[in-house]
Amino acid sequence: MPNKKYKIAVIQLNLNDVAENNLKKCLSWVRDAAKLGAEVISLPELYSSHYFCQSEDVDNFALAEPLYSTSFIAFSALAKELGVVIIVPFFEKRMAGIYHNSAYIIDTDGSEAGLYRKMHIPDDPHFYEKFYFTPGDLGFKTIPTQKGKIGTLICWDQWYPEAARLTALQGAEVLFYPTAIGWHPGEKDEYGANQYGAWMNVMKGHAVANGVYVAAANRIGLEQYLPDTAGIEFWGASFIAGPQGEILAQASHDKEEILIAEVDLDLQENVRQNWPFFRDRRIDAFGDITKRAID
Questions:
Q1: Pairing of β 112-117 and β 98-106
Q2: Phi/psi class of residue 145: alpha, beta or left (left: φ > 0; alpha: ψ in -120 to 50)?
Q3: Which of 93, 118, 147, 204 is catalytic?
Q4: Mean pLDDT of 99-113
Q5: pLDDT in tens, 229-257
Q6: Domain-embedded: residue 234
Q7: What are the CA-CA distances from residue 290 to residues 25, 293, 294 (Å)?
């Protein structure tokens, strides 16, 4: 029988360090989350390094790792030891010249339950991800695990209702969004509140429209590794929302934290019975959604 209730966690961290130190740090925080009762645990996007996409520099490709190497070995062993599911976002080297922004979903026995490759790749000032990442080719996926059915999307994916919908339609109970998003310090005073508010509101909307739990795991801290630049101030504020968009757990903007909330599948079903958005979808009229624009 599937679990009717299980606890999920997102971990909010400062990851402005070298890969070896970030790995040790994240292993320790995952262990702490499990001690608090978490059964499905997500790290932030690109956990193993500082956010290197602030510049276009071929030397940064050295930060990538092949599938099933350092990150998978370490977190697979930990998942098996603790009996938890771990979402591990990492910089994947698929082959020479092809790299992805990816996430392992590692099951309670240490096996790979699934792999997700970020589908939407941004190219904004100091978020130059198109230089590094090939768009994902595995599609939007719901991954069955020993704890529950989860969907993993990554950061820029969070702005697209189609990504949330297609994942939820496959049975996802929770949408996880490992994230690395922050303010340009020079813009924070003028635009910061609206930027942060839009980020949170769009994901709460995905929760409501799909009757799912949503969990976003962001990083914190000022990452100013390039000379003569202001860097990026990652705004933290990780959160977990329920299927009506209600906030179940909310982190600060500047502290390392573990957020935990309970997924209640009876509650989710009750919400969907009373707000039957899936029932009333006019799929016969949605054909044009696959067009770039309706001219």
A1: antiparallel
A2: beta
A3: 118
A4: 98
A5: 999 999 999 999 999 999 999 999 999 99
A6: yes
A7: 42, 9, 10
Amino acid at 28: S
Question: What is the domain extent for residue 82?
Answer: 5-290
Mean pLDDT within 224-232: 93
Q: What is the rounded distance in angstroms from the CA atom of residue 167 to the CA atom of residue 200?
A: 19
Phi, psi of 72 (to 5 degrees): -65, -45
Burial class (CB in 10 A: 0-12, 13-18, 19+), 157: buried
Q: Are 259 and 7 in contact (CB under 8 A)?
A: no
Q: Is 245 helix (H, G, I), strand (E, B) or coil?
A: coil
Q: Is residue 194 included in any domain, yes or no?
A: yes
45, 92, 129, 173: the catalytic one is 45
Q: Give residue for tokens 């768009």.
A: 135
In a domain, 295, yes or no: no
Q: What are phi and psi of 173, to 5 degrees?
A: -95, -30
Domain CATH for 77? 3.60.110.10
Is 26 considered catalytic here? Answer: no
Domain count, the chain: 1
Q: Return phi, psi of residue 21, to 5°.
A: -70, -40
User: Is 220 contained in some domain?
Assistant: yes
The encoded tokens of residue 136 equal 């994902």
Catalytic annotation present for 155: yes
From 155, 173, 223, 233, active-site residue: 155
